[in-house]
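Researcher: We plan to redesign the surface later, but first we want a full-length starting point. Tokens attached.
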């Protein structure tokens, strides 16, 4: 649905969520992703366009910035095998550039909570199976981020300097990774809407 706020059209999605037996206080909330305002509304709650518009207007300055920041976000439709080949391409490329060896990398069998990948030991990488839906440039940044952890396990200044050495605009690219962090909260209808074929 489109709502006009201060002469600007704002695309809005509503996701209905079930409040299991009323066990917790649940209210209307929103997240700006993919250049859209995505509302989460308790199942059975009556909500109208005026109410949603009021919520948007209260936070308009912040929402407008987030819409601009996230408007180029999209999800990709790709298989696990296609993801594996893409990861292999970037692991090989950056092994040469960074002068490190990845002992093994794999794709997690189930979604990993709150992370896109991790690096264990000195070169064992595991990538979240949900990376199948990330754009290629985001996957590249995830690979380089994790390979930088072969040098430094933390996110110290040395880590960021090394990350920046291998990937131009590393901090900006890492912020781009963060934009996708909450995407798994989206329902399937919203995911299908923002998906693009590879």
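Model: Full-length starting sequence:
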């Amino acid at each position: 649905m489109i709502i006009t706020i201060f002469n600007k059209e704002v695309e809005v999605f509503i996701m209905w969520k079930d409040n299991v037996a009323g066990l917790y206080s649940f209210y209307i909330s929103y997240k700006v992703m993919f250049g859209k305002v995505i509302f989460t509304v308790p199942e059975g709650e009556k909500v109208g366009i005026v109410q949603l518009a009021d919520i948007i207007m209260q936070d308009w300055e912040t929402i407008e910035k987030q819409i601009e920041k996230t408007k180029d976000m999209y999800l990709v439709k790709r298989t696990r095998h296609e993801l594996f080949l893409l990861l292999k391409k970037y692991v090989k490329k950056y092994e040469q550039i960074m002068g490190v060896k990845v002992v093994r990398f794999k794709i997690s069998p189930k979604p990993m909570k709150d992370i896109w990948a991790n690096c264990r030991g000195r070169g064992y990488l595991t990538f979240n199976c949900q990376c199948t839906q990330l754009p290629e440039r985001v996957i590249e940044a995830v690979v380089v981020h994790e390979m930088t952890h072969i040098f430094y396990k933390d996110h110290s200044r040395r880590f960021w300097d090394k990350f920046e050495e291998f990937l131009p605009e590393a901090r900006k690219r890492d912020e781009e990774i963060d934009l996708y962090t909450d995407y798994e909260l989206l329902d399937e209808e919203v995911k299908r809407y923002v998906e693009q074929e590879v």
